[in-house]
């Protein structure tokens, strides 16, 4: 901690380190003392005490109101209403009467052997009045693809992936820095849909490399350049500019991967790639704009890391450390720009605590166990020392209680129907499911419908295709 404080003090005046969340919140609080924000009313969906202390100080300046205690949304007399009131009674410390399962249509519990079957069985519950449905899907899986196949609107779940085409360009560019020449990587670079070389050049160079591996010299290389010059004349492209880009991206100097490449040479290539992405941001296709923005962000992140090394006096970087920095720059991945929510989609959340409004129907997809809450890495003595220094870490029991409260909000938000989709047999279920089971008398617990039955029984209502 002392080392981190010394590092912060040494870099505070030079602005080499960006301000953290705590410092930015302190700056916001100071600014609010001078200029009042144009916020007339602020309602917190969670108690103010659940927020970190720095956030509490900022929020208190806005005089927020809290949403209040959780309350049941379903009518009394229905199974759903009974479950909601039993949950709240148990939350308040009272012992509610044990429930008996009855099939009144207000609660459905389903399970399938695979995620694909579960998604197909669920589609029939989302076919009508989708806009009156809240879909809670912490584990997205194949749900969006199956709904699209059933001619239902895509929900637009944004799963990040590090293998998007725009994020593959930088690794291919960096792969050409090293000796010996990576022919497979060069072919991937030349045939990639996003490439800083014009198509008239890379298509012919790819054909040449595939037939006669090697670059820079030889009859095959000379013939390829002559063909590119002829193609440029026919298409009206500037041959001198195309030839210069071939030198820049293909014929550049390569370096020993152990001895490393000069940081200046690597940053030059990254700057050139950043300029290429910046030039493509004007594309009229919004999906391509998002893709090129992701590639630019990845390139700039790596550039900042290399500049930090240069400030430390480093002049070269080897292949392995560069690969490590690249992996860190790509760690977040990017979302698929074409998978957006379509007209008629449900209201979707990926965290159960985000369900803050009531809905006619609430669907919780794949009620799987959440990740285990990791304890603090410090001893009790260290935690006490941190507390004396003003570092307020909430007790783990309080964190678990907040999570348990958030898990109940989707159940309490349903007005007419609650649909719970359990994970495949053998997988660990969510603690909420164990809590719901405990509300029922032994031998009269929830009836679990096998989704395979709804897909094979012709007497059941089929999926409504549009």
Q: Output the radius of gyration.
A: 29 Å
What pattern of helices and strands is seen along the backbone?
Answer: HHEHEHEHEHHHHHHEHHEHEEHHEHEH
Profile the largest sheet: 6 strands, parallel
Overall spatial form: globular
Q: What percent of residues are in strands? A: 5-15%
- Tell how many strands the DSSP assignment holds: 10
Q: Are there runs of 5+ residues with pLDDT below 50, and where?
A: 458-466
Question: What does this molecule look like?
Answer:
The chain has 466 residues and is an alpha/beta fold. It is built from 18 helices and ten strands. A six-stranded parallel β-sheet has the order 7-4-8-9-3-10. A two-stranded parallel ribbon has the order 1-2. α2 runs parallel beside α3 and α7 (165-175) runs parallel beside α13 (286-311). The longest helix has 26 residues, at 286-311. The protein is globular, with a radius of gyration of 29 Å. The N and C termini lie far apart (60 Å). The model is unreliable at 458-466 (pLDDT under 50).
Briefly characterize the structure.
This protein has 18 helices and ten strands.
Supply the key terms.
466 residues, alpha/beta, six-stranded parallel beta sheet, two-stranded parallel ribbon, 18 helices, 10 strands, globular, disordered C terminus
Topology overview:
Elements: H1 2-11, H2 21-32, E1 43-44, H3 53-60, E2 65-66, H4 79-91, E3 107-111, H5 115-123, E4 133-136, H6 143-149, H7 165-175, H8 183-191, H9 199-211, H10 219-235, H11 239-249, E5 261-262, H12 263-280, H13 286-311, E6 316-317, H14 319-329, E7 347-349, E8 359-364, H15 380-388, H16 396-413, E9 414-422, H17 431-438, E10 448-450, H18 451-456
């Amino acid at each position: 901690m002392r080392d981190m404080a010394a590092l912060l003090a040494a870099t505070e005046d030079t602005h080499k380190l960006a301000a953290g969340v705590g410092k930015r919140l302190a700056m916001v609080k100071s600014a609010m003392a001078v200029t009042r924000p144009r916020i007339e009313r602020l309602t917190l969906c969670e108690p103010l005490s659940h927020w970190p202390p720095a956030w509490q100080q900022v929020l208190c300046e806005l005089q927020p109101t809290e949403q209040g205690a959780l309350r049941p949304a379903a009518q009394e007399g229905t199974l759903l209403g009974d479950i909601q009131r039993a949950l709240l009674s148990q939350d308040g410390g009272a012992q509610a009467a044990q429930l008996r399962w009855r099939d009144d249509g207000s609660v459905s519990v389903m399970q399938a052997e695979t995620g694909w079957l579960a998604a197909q069985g669920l589609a029939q519950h989302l076919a009508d009045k989708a806009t009156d449905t809240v879909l809670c899907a912490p584990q997205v899986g194949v749900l969006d693809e199956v709904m699209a196949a059933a001619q239902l609107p895509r929900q637009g779940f944004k799963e990040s992936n590090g293998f998007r085409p725009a994020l593959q360009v930088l690794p291919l560019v960096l792969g050409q820095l090293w000796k010996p020449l990576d022919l497979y990587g060069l072919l991937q670079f030349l045939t990639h849909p996003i490439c800083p070389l014009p198509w008239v050049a890379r298509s012919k160079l790819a054909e040449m490399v595939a037939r006669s591996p090697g670059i820079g010299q030889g009859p095959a290389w000379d013939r390829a350049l002559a063909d590119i010059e002829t193609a440029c004349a026919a298409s009206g492209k500037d041959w001198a500019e195309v030839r210069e880009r071939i030198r820049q991206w293909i014929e550049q100097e390569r370096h020993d991967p152990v001895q490393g490449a000069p940081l200046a040479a690597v940053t030059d290539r990254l700057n050139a790639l950043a300029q290429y992405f910046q030039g493509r941001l004007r594309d009229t296709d919004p999906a391509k704009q998002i893709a090129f923005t992701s590639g630019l962000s990845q390139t700039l992140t790596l550039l900042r890391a290399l500049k930090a090394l240069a400030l430390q006096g480093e002049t070269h970087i080897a292949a392995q450390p560069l690969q490590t920095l690249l992996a860190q720059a790509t760690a977040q991945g990017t979302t698929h720009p074409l998978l957006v929510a379509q007209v008629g989609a449900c209201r979707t959340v990926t965290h159960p605590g985000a369900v803050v409004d009531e809905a006619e129907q609430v669907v919780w997809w794949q009620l799987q166990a959440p990740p285990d809450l990791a304890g603090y890495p410090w001893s009790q003595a260290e935690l006490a020392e941190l507390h004396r220094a003003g570092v307020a870490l909430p007790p783990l029991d309080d964190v678990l209680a907040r999570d348990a409260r958030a898990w109940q909000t989707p159940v309490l938000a349903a007005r007419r129907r609650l649909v719970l989709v359990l994970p495949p047999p053998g997988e660990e279920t969510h603690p909420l499911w164990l809590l719901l089971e405990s509300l029922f008398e032994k031998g009269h617990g929830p009836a679990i419908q096998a989704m395979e039955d709804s897909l094979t029984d012709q007497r059941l209502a089929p999926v409504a295709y549009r």
